[in-house]
TrEMBL record:
<dbReference type="InterPro" id="IPR036953">
    <property type="entry name" value="GreA/GreB_C_sf"/>
</dbReference>
<dbReference type="GO" id="GO:0070063">
    <property type="term" value="F:RNA polymerase binding"/>
</dbReference>
<dbReference type="InterPro" id="IPR023459">
    <property type="entry name" value="Tscrpt_elong_fac_GreA/B_fam"/>
</dbReference>
<protein>
    <submittedName>
        <fullName>Nucleoside-diphosphate kinase</fullName>
    </submittedName>
</protein>
<dbReference type="InterPro" id="IPR001437">
    <property type="entry name" value="Tscrpt_elong_fac_GreA/B_C"/>
</dbReference>
<keyword id="KW-0808">Transferase</keyword>
<keyword id="KW-0418">Kinase</keyword>
<dbReference type="GO" id="GO:0016301">
    <property type="term" value="F:kinase activity"/>
</dbReference>
<dbReference type="GO" id="GO:0003677">
    <property type="term" value="F:DNA binding"/>
</dbReference>
<dbReference type="GO" id="GO:0032784">
    <property type="term" value="P:regulation of DNA-templated transcription elongation"/>
</dbReference>
<feature type="domain" description="Transcription elongation factor GreA/GreB C-terminal">
    <location>
        <begin position="82"/>
        <end position="150"/>
    </location>
</feature>
<dbReference type="GO" id="GO:0006354">
    <property type="term" value="P:DNA-templated transcription elongation"/>
</dbReference>
<dbReference type="Pfam" id="PF01272">
    <property type="entry name" value="GreA_GreB"/>
</dbReference>
Length: 153
């Protein structure tokens, strides 16, 4: 029989499931970020223990590997205590005549809808190293951002 008519099973026709990609660079986290990772690991461990359906179990194990790797490589950063924008800083600023406030956090803690930006996001990168009263270039515009306040989250 021709190989074209052979079928070993449905598995060979399924889309391959790849590991969840880990962001490049260091895994910097806030204390809150590490706690969130620990919660996620605990949730997934409980889910893996409870699941019996193979596809769901495979997905949960893959997610658990990702979060366990993130926990193992987490580098908790100290809370910034000076007047310079650093990882973990809460920054209040003016951008385009609009008052904004963000907290600069790690990849896994980032939530732009909650004004928590990853330290590698363009806006966060532009603000890092700035001080109160500084004007910062952003998005191709000179002095687009005025830093008004810097504090702990």
């Amino acid at each position: 029989m021709s190989v074209a008519f052979r079928r070993d099973g449905d598995e060979e026709h399924l889309e391959p499931k790849f590991e969840v990609p880990i962001p490049p660079g260091p895994n910097l986290v806030t204390v809150r970020g590490r706690e969130l990772i620990l919660e996620k690991v605990s949730q997934l461990e409980a889910q893996v223990a409870a699941l019996t359906e193979e596809t769901a179990l495979t997905g949960a194990k893959r997610d658990l590997r990702y979060w366990q790797a993130r926990l193992d490589t987490a580098q908790v950063q100290p809370i910034p205590e000076d007047s310079t924008v650093r990882f973990g800083s809460r920054v209040r600023f003016m951008l385009g005549n609009k008052l904004r406030e963000i907290v600069i956090v790690g990849h896994d803690e980032a939530d732009p809808a909650q004004d928590r930006l990853a330290f590698v996001a363009p806006l966060a990168k532009a603000l890092l190293g700035a001080e109160v009263g500084d004007f910062v270039d952003f998005n191709g515009r000179e002095e687009a951002i005025e830093v008004l306040e810097i504090g702990a989250p």
